[in-house]
Every structure is written in structure tokens, then in C-alpha cells.
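To the team - adenosine-5'-diphosphate complex, inputs and output below.
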Amino acid sequence: MLKTPQRPTSMAVLTSGGDAAGMNAAVRATVRAGLAAGLDVYGVYEGMQGLVDGGDRITQLSSSDVGGILHQGGTVLGTARCAEFRTREGRRRAARNLIERGIDALVVIGGDGSLTGANLFREEWSSLLDELVDLGEIDSGQATAHKRLTLVGMVGSIDNDMFGTDMTIGADTALHRITEAIDAIHSTASSHQRSFVIEVMGRNCGYLALMSAVAAGANWVLIPESPPDTDDWEESMCRAMEAGRAIGRRRNLAIVAEGAQDRHGNPITAQHVKEVLEERLGEDTRVTSLGHVQRGGAPSAFDRYLSTVLGYAAVEQVLMSPGAEPQLIGIRGHEIISSPLMDSVNKTKAVADVIANHDYETAMDMRGGSFKDSFRMIRTMVRAQPHAPEPGQRRLRLAVLHAGGPAPGMNTAVRVAVRVGEDRGHTMLAVHNGFKGLADGDIEEMNWMSVTGWVSRGGAELGTSRKQPTPEMFARMAEQMAEHEIDGLLLIGGWTAYQAAHTMHELRDEYPVFGRPIVCLPASINNDLPGSELSVGADTALNSIQNDVDKIKQSAVAARRSFVVEVMGRDCGYLALMSGLATGAERVYLPEEGISLLDLEKDVNELKDGFAHGKRLGLVIRSEHADPVFSTGFIRSLFEHEGGGLFDVREAILGHVQQGGDPSPFDRIQATRLASKCVEYLIEQALGDEPTSAFVGLQKGKVRFTPLIEFPNLIEPGVHRPKDQSWMALRPLARVMAQPSHPKP
Ligand code: ADP
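Output:
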């Protein structure tokens, strides 16, 4: 009978293939989770080459060895292409190097090439050990003790081209770099009325091209999976660009994926697109190839979070099923998933084959729902004008308004709503200044061009307010809705929007116009709304907090100093916990938990102990409503007083910067996706017999509508937050990651 393999006692982690931002965070999480589980953890330098070379390229790591790397791009372990690892001889040396150190578990962070190589290594493991015994390089006792290699993979790749995970490590950061570059190009292109063609990475995968086109409001996009429909696509592109100019668009922007091709598989280059625009339209056109800029820079908040949770889960996987079939750890929505490694690698490779065989429909199907949705959406958004209404169709009048605090991405959502609504043949109205504007009849008809440039603009062009409508206002709102013949209402906003929408729905017997469909789109940096894992604006706020905290940490390199940073969130600790994860905070105070005197005593003692043992920097993040008594100022004074001369303490209340700034790519993409679904929902409901009202959201990464009537059942009584907050499950992980004092090897 086969004995269940023993739980490994030593584990190695390596990064391999193309580098990607977030690899460091993944290494840090793997190392710290491994140490916390009592494993000896080794770092392998220079990818597979380090395995083959051994020596000091395979080094035991302590928790502090992976301190201070969370915010760094690239990989501190290094990565290399390694020809020797492709030979059996090379892999035999690698096996010996691991066995010598008693290592029989390997966590690999890399692309499909690296994962394929690692899988082969694992398959050959026992035969490699036999050879090593025969050669006298290891003894049979060693071979028996480490019969099987446990292998777990994570995908580090900016292309986001892997099956088995919604997102790969590095893709979100690459989108940040691309979007920043395009935003910058935007202003110069508009000034000179130029055309720009931007080439982005992605040989077999159009993810970066497509999503950056959505996020940057591009006017044409070319991706490998879905080549232009016709052979004369150049003509269609020119007509679209020309129509844009005719209605006053000041710049034209085309995005071309590295691997873009036509229906026959002939490559379409950025240079070719430029030549076409110049020759056929006489456009002054420039090409920008973003190249390695896309790989570089500090990882985004999402990549730090993703890498951290994946690294932690990878170690759990190692411990749970030693010796089992290798698994790939990935994410679906907020959920961590594992799938057989080679299944995912093979499916990924299959897409390339499908594209090579010109079977584009299958290629798009394999990319999945949100990719296809985005592609469909971009084809609407690149139009210079809406489709003409169908003859005889009913033209609805749909209104958009904001309520609640400002959230980056609100403008993006309005732009999409207006364009999708108009494109479907309906009249789109904008209500200025929230519910007050609705009560006052401050309502304007919008058109295609009135939302030009809104995709990337922070703030809220229509104005927003936190004020709940008074009973008297509800009456006037109803009057105005009737007077303007509003058939449906899209509320883009936060708590105020949801609460008022629910009240309107409740009042529908008294004011029958409130029985017309209302849909709420979650837009709040606090991420405190029911029915959605994420609200628009939260990702931008997280990145903003993270950038500020990175700077605050850098300001303290020389001194022994602790910071108490206060972040927004009202009654919801999402921003605090997630920014704590992304910046490596030791302690996070959440409104969900409150703060007790006992907590503070324990925390100050831990800080003292840390600083007494060489710690130079402390970081504590406090959510603004964490506790009514123990304020940020109080905690600072307490720590400083109790810390004695060991360290000093500074407080930083980040304030309204968290609500500002241009929306992150992720917020733009989510706003686009949700707003288009909301308008479709309103149209369907308004034209149906029994209209209902709802709020939209992302649930397990999918767009879902929840009936508005459910609102009170889904929230915590007395506070502004939903009952279901799946991210709270990350608290233990945050604690493990912040542990600076795992035992030294
Ligand atoms: P990526 O992991 O980004 O796809 P590569 O394809 O270059 O990058 O793979 C990185 C390294 O992984 C290679 O240099 C090689 O050492 C190893 N590797 C890749 N494919 C194989 C394979 N089929 N067999 C053995 N090793 C491989």
C-alpha cells in the first residue's frame, strides 16, 4: 500500500520567466506563510538557473529577509531563462541541489513556460533521484525520505493570459502603466489634433490592449483573438476616425496588441496603422510602443493584494496535499481557487493554437464573459455617433444622477450610460447636484459628445451630495420625475443613493412614478454597499492610500519611528485592511472590531519589543470610525508615551486625497461594465410589464442584480456597512504577513 507522503519540512520558492510587478509580494507572502507554518523556507535566485547551480543561489530565508520588498517592482530573487534546465542533466543537478538541503516542495511563480518546466521536473523527480543514487551523489535514505516533489504554481505574467485565474500577477500594474502613458499622450494629442497609435504587449492575448482601450477611451483597438471582420478593415477604421473628427473629436487613438493580426493571420503592426491613417486621411500620426515600461514600476494595490493572498494559499496547498498532482493557485472574483496545473497550462497554450488556426470565435469564447463583454462595449464606445433609433421604437427617457461622497469612476460610469442609452435609441438625461437637483428640476438632456473625455476624469461632473432627501423633497422629486417623463433612474453613488432609492421604492404607492425602475450602481471609495464585492472608486482610493503610505515609510528610513495612519471608510474597514495588506502594516484597527484597552496594551508592547530588537519602522493603520474614544491622536500619544525613548510616533490623517485623483484602470473598467449593464436593465424593466428596481454589483466576479427591496435585510443595523463582507476573512492572513518576528533560520 502506498503511504501518504509526509508533510514537507522544507520548501523553496522561485520566480522564473518574464518578470512581473507583484512577484516580490508573492515571494514575501510565500516565505512568511511558510515560516508561520513551521517550514524551513529557501529562496532560489535566478529562477531555474539557481536550481541548477545550487550553492548560495539556494538560500534559507528569514521573515526579515523579505521585509521592505512589497512595494518594489520586478523580483528580488531574480529571474533568468535557463537552457540547462531544459536538459535532463540540468534537472538532475537541480534535484540534487534540493535533496542536499532536504527540500521536497517547490513554489514556482512564472509564466506557462516556467510552469511546464517545473511540472516536467516534478514528473521526473523519482527517476532523477534513482539516477542520483546510482551515481552515488545522494544516498538511498535521502531518496526515500523525499520520494515526491510537491509543486504549486502561481502565474506571474503581465499578459493576463492564463487559465485557472481571472488575473495574473503583474497584469493590473501593467494596465496602470499603460493607462498613465495614454492619459499623458491624450493631452498632447488633443493639443495638436493628432492621431496616436499605441502598441502594447500581448502576443497571443489581447487583454492589455482591450482593457487599456476601455480604460483610456480609445477609438480603435486591434487584438489577436478577434481580428477585424473584413479584409478592408483599414477603410472601416478610417471612416470611424473621420466621423470622429467631423463631430469635433480632437484626437484619435488606436491601440494595437503586439500579436494583432488580420483574418488570414497576417500581422497588423502599429506602423501599418500609422501609414494607413497618414495616407488615407492625411492625419498627423505618431506611434508609441510602450515596451518595457509596461513591466516596470511599483506594483499596484491589486497586485500586492493578489500576490499576497496567492502566496499564502500556495503554502496552504503545499501543506494540505503533499506530493499530490501539482496545482495552480488563482483567483475568481474574491475567491481563491486551485486547479490542476497542467490543465490550465494546456488550455492556455490551446488558445494560441486556436488563434493560429484562425478559429477566432472559439478564441473569444475561451477568453470568457467579461472579455467578450468588454469587446462588445468597446465597439459601441468607438463609434462617433449612436445608431439611429429603430423605426417605431419607443424612446425612453432615462435619467442619471449621483448621490453620496465623490468616488473616482463616477464620470466614467455616466459616459458609458449616456452612450449606451443613446446607442439603443433612448433619450438620456443628467440630473445635476444629486437629489436636490432632481427636486429642483435641474435636469439636462445629454448627447454622445457631452461626455467626451469623461472616461479618465476624477471627481463628479454632475455633482454629488451626501444629503438624504427630506420628506418634502421626495414629493418634489416625484413631481419632477413625472414632469420630465422620466421612465427610469440610474443612481451612481454610495450609501445615500442606496438608502434614498430604497425609500423611493417604499413610497411607490404614494408616488406612483417611484414605481418606475430605479437601479443603483455602487460608487463609493468605502466599499460599504451590499450586493457587490467591490464598489467603483475603492481601487483608486486604495492605490492613493498605498502611494501615500509608501512615501510616509520612505520618510522614516533613518529614524526609529512608528506611524499611525488614519484612512477613510466610515463604518467599513475595507480600505484600512486592504491598505494594511498592501503596505505591510503591523496592525490594522477596524470599525468592525473596535479597539479595546487590552488591544492597545498588547500592540504597544509588541512595538516596544520590535524596536528593542532592531526594528526601524512601525506602521499602524486606523480606520476613521474604528473607535469613538481611541482616536488616532490618542493612539499616537499613547504609543509615544509608552514607547519611552525606544521610538517616536507620528500620525498622518490622509483625508480627502483619498476621494480624489483620476480613476484607476480597474475602476474605469468596472464602471464601464456595470453602467452598461445598468442601462440595459433599465431599458428591459421600463419596457416590461412589471418593472422592478435593483442594485447592481460584482459577485464572484460576475455582474448580478439584487432587488432593491432587499436593502434593509443585507445591511448591519445601525451602521453603514453590509452584513456580508467576504474580505474580513483576510484578517488572519494580514496578521501572519505583518509578523516580523518569525523564528530566524
Ligand atoms: P515564462 O515562464 O515566462 O513562460 P519561459 O518560457 O522563458 O518563460 O520559461 C522560463 C524557463 O523555464 C526556461 O528558461 C526554462 O528554464 C524553463 N522551461 C520552460 N519550458 C520548459 C520545458 N518545456 N522543459 C523544461 N524547462 C522549461
